[in-house]
Amino acid sequence: MAMITQQNVQLKQVSRGNYLMRNVLKYNMVFNEGSKGDAAYILTEGKIEISGTVEGRKKVFAILKPISIFGEMALFLEDGVRTATAIALEDSKVIVVTRDDLDEFMRKSPKVIASIITVLVGRLKSTTRKAMKVPSVGLGVVRILDLFSACGKLELKYDPTIKTLAETFVTTPDRIERYVRELADQDLLAVGRDVNDTRIIRIRERDMLAAVMQQQE
């Protein structure tokens, strides 16, 4: 395997917007398990291996091809510690997406980001289960609801939402419901019923993540 060096990694401006394109040579590391992370990545060219340590052994979670999003756990978890390692299996290109980038992109392209949310939630579910690690559940729930809010999706069906969040964070529905009740007590969301008498979660705070973080200060 080739040596992994900073000199092998190049950064350049993407032609549109303020996003950075990172060129990663074959066998070079994009990020390492346990390191601090503050960005996600969109693979546009090449192939990326996602792996982690499970019971003391390397476990390959996925082999990604374009177009794929990875490293998104850093945008959801409170401590931002990487739960997996990403290595290029061939010369690759990735777009670097920070939290600020994601928020800006959501404001400009709400229809596109709606489909990205589905990918992120699915990856959260898969990565968490395979790595057998439970992230910061409360903040993770807030972050996902915040993404839906940013897309203008302010009403969610209660039962499917609770079930999906419980599966995503490998926890019980009761625990998710407890977080939802706490958010309702803070008037950040409300639990009620729609015109069809279906139980729903109604997001009341457009910038829920910022509101929660401010309350914790």
From TrEMBL:
This is cAMP receptor protein. Keywords: Receptor. It comes from Pseudodesulfovibrio hydrargyri. Pfam families: cNMP_binding (PF00027). It comes from the Bacteria. PROSITE patterns: CNMP_BINDING_2, CNMP_BINDING_3. Gene3D superfamilies: Jelly Rolls (2.60.120.10). Residues 28-106 form the Cyclic nucleotide-binding domain. InterPro entries: cNMP-bd_CS, cNMP-bd_dom, cNMP-bd_dom_sf, Env_Response_Regulators, RmlC-like_jellyroll. GO terms for molecular function: DNA-binding transcription factor activity. GO terms for cellular component: cytosol. SMART domains: cNMP (SM00100). The keyword Ubl conjugation does not apply.
